[in-house]
Amino acid sequence: MTRSVPVPESKLPALGTTIFTTMSALAQQVGAINLSQGFPDFSGPDYLQQRLAHHIEQGANQYAPMSGTPALREAISAKISRCYECQVDKETDITVTAGATEALFASITALVRPGDEVICFDPSYDSYAPAVQLAGGIMKHIPLSPPDFTPNWSSFSAAISDKTRLVIINTPHNPTASVWQKEEFDALWSAIAERPIFVLSDEVYEHICFAQHGHYSLLQHASLRERGIVVSSFGKTYHMTGWKVGYCVAPPHLSLEIRKIHQYLTFSVHTPTQLALADMLNHAPEHDQNLPSFYQQRRDFLINALQESRFTLLPCQGTYFLLLDYSAISQMNDVDFCLYLTKEVGVAAIPLSVFCKEAFPHHLIRLCFAKEEATMQAAAEKLCQL
User: Fold this and answer.
1) Residues 252-273: pLDDT tens digits?
2) Do residues 164 and 193 touch, judged by C-beta distance below 8 A?
3) 122, 121, 175: which is closest to 322 by C-alpha?
4) What pairing do the DSSP bridges indicate for beta strands 117-122 and 138-143?
5) Phi/psi at 127 (nearest 5 deg)?
């Protein structure tokens, strides 16, 4: 008798390979210029790399404390004070995680119970919904519309129910490159103030912000901060996405629950990397202050290189992504258009519809400008031929 091999019932049956993996693999296969996946094609600061090697050589190769090394948590606390004039306790409020995605997952898992409702704004980063689903929650999507992708607060208020547990926000926003200001946070607070609702603020692009008034953090909003979690990423700030180190900041009663999940996901994060990041924060605090101009120069280079194209370029207030409307070129849906661009034109991009639960009736694609100018110039020359 032949025994059948048991096959587990998938907890995420609708989930396949992410569009980022798909497009990057296709770009490599056909030799296309990859402006799809969001990672730099240049390296991070020399000093940071040198400090990593130093700490490895000095033997800092064992487990770090679960919540993060004291040196890094102290440096993060000082950075938050400098950037946002906000005091956070390095012992109780800061948890170092294996990338921002782990911080998001741990936060969602800690807060969401079966049957709870979670509100997010679409387009939205692709890791939110699976984490909510695994926690047994129900995702409610509020659509944002181009060109400014401003939240409709009437629609938001209508989506709130007695089951609403969490609101997920992202500013600067991937993929739309829009940025919230204090007015948006005030509107959010007005809508949830009388309800027991938490807020998870994904701020991984906090230092890549070109808005006139800069980045406004949830940490600066005294009322929301009491029930909020802020997630940040060293990978974005230091051009080292492969190092996968992030952190979350939350009041003690929320940090306690996040750490209960974190300790059984990764327990702790790579020790010498944490120590190197602490050194970098203390040695060059001006790095994050210079980051907006560093990336604005690249943004403007790509915009100028595409001026002769038939694409319509949307505003970009933050992140290292630029949205292009291709309506004047094709009426293909955005997924097919990105496949065409990659295979036939030689430039890989990301379709915006993959960030949305409902149908996205716009002809928009996303390009990453965290690239060397030569890379962007070569891509723009191909796109201008369409």
Assistant:
1) 999 999 999 999 999 999 999 9
2) no
3) 175
4) parallel
5) -85, -15
Q: CA-to-CA distance for 311 and 53, rounded, in angstroms? A: 45
Cis peptide before 196 (omega within 30 of 0): no
Q: What is the pLDDT of residue 1?
A: 58
CA distance 102 to 107: 8
**DSSP E strand boundaries for 197-353:** 198-202, 228-233, 246-249, 312-313, 321-325, 347-348, 350-351
State how far the Cα of 277 lies from the Cα of 272, in Å rounded to an integer: 9
Question: Tokens in use for 249?
Answer: 């900041």
How distant is the alpha carbon of residue 81 from its chain centre?
22
- Which residue type does 74 have? E
Q: How far apart are CA 223 and CA 182, in angstroms?
A: 12
Please count the other Cβ atoms lying within 10 Å of the Cβ belonging to residue 16.
9
SS3 content of the chain, % helix, strand, coil (to 5): 40, 15, 45
The SS3 assignment for 165 reads strand
Task: Confirm if 68 and 95 have CB atoms less than 8 A apart.
Answer: yes
For 25-175, list the strands marked E by DSSP: 33-34, 94-97, 117-122, 138-143, 164-170
* Mean pLDDT score across all residues of the chain: 96
Identify whether the C-beta of residue 29 lies closer than 8 Å to the C-beta of residue 137. no
pLDDT tens-digit readout, 181-200: 999 999 999 999 999 999 99
Question: Residues 342-384: pLDDT tens digits?
Answer: 999 999 999 999 999 988 999 999 999 999 999 999 999 999 9
Secondary structure letter of residue 343 according to DSSP: I
Residue 332 has what DSSP assignment? S
pLDDT band (50, 70, 90) for residue 15: confident
- The answer to whether the beta carbons of residues 386 and 310 sit under 8 Å apart is yes
Phi first, then psi, for residue 8 (nearest 5°) are -70, 145
Phi and psi angles of residue 230, each rounded to the nearest 5 degrees, phi first: -110, 130
Quick one: how far is CA 181 from the chain centroid?
A: 17
